[in-house]
Amino acid sequence: MASNRPAPEAPFGSYDPIGHPTVSGIPDAAAPAATVEWNPTEDTVRPVRGRHRVVKQRGGLARSSTVLGVGVIAAVGAGGMATAHDKPRVAISLPDVNLPDASSLPGVGALISDDADGKADTAEEAPAPSNLATLTLSADQAAADAQGAGTEADAGEALRTRILQQVEQQQASAEAEAQAAAEKAAAEKAAQEAAAQQATAEAAAKAAEAERKRAEQEAAAKAEAERLAKLAASYALPTSSYTITSTYGQAGSMWSSGYHTGLDLAAPTGTPANAVHGGTIKSAGWSGSYGYRIVLELSDGTEIWYCHLSSMTVSAGQTVSTGETIGRVGATGNVTGPHLHMEVHTPSGGGIDPLAWLRGKGLTV
């Protein structure tokens, strides 16, 4: 088992804090004051080995202020790279102090250079002052990289903002298009509904107009029927038991005018000829091709001619009533057989269709 070697004694024993020699820790007044500073060296102070070896202190007195400054700069540079996205760059300045080298301090050099391994560790952990510029440049480069990362972050944020703006614009455009389509659909639907309502209104109007016309026609027909009924009560057929053989306007060579000017009602000779309406006998006598003819003038100036009579029972100027017998059917004049030739003349003297005139008076012929 190894034992600890005793440390060599100092040349003058022990010393008090101000450099005076002491004996057993008590200052010796007779001893001369130290005139030479005692600086331990590797020869005078040997490292203690074994169980009681003193472990080297790292980060303590073995590090100079310059080394500490370099560590601070490196730490700040690392922190800057970690927080470059969030914090601005921080300038760090250290005072330029002239501190002695750690190996020249009394009792420290041996601790630093304990052995070859210790020297290697010290050299590795405490870079030379010439490396300070390199570390400073590395910190600046880290700050520049952080600044570049910040610039890239700003560019990314700008791109993100632009994308969000485009998304919002597209969304707004889509919403506007949807709203426009909805408004167009609503307008088309409203137009269709309006057109349908208009068509319905027009159909209803047409139906109402048709109903109105139908009602008017019915009312007119009813009024005409009433009028004809009244007229029928005041008008009468010119004869009875007859057969229509010729009508008004019928063409033929047997008539001097080239067409038939009246209505022929064939009936046996002696059949009564009646006044169609009340009026005055304008004339009664022979009239050439008409044979015996009676002219009845109505109150409105219309003349009714009764021709080819076999006999007459009235005279000119006589007033007759509706349905009164004024003569008898015969075959006098230019005829082919017994019949009543009837003509209707307007007040102006022109002839009209007797069949239409009779029916216009409500008579069924």
UniProtKB/TrEMBL annotation:
UniProt GO MF annotations: metalloendopeptidase activity
Name of this chain's protein: Peptidase
Keyword Cell inner membrane attributed: no
Signal peptide: none
Database matches in SUPFAM superfamilies: Duplicated hybrid motif
Keywords, comma-separated and alphabetical: Coiled coil
Coiled coil is among the record's keywords: yes
Species of origin: Streptomyces thermolilacinus SPC6
UniProt domain M23ase beta-sheet core: residue ranges: 259-349
Residue ranges of the region described as Disordered: 1-33
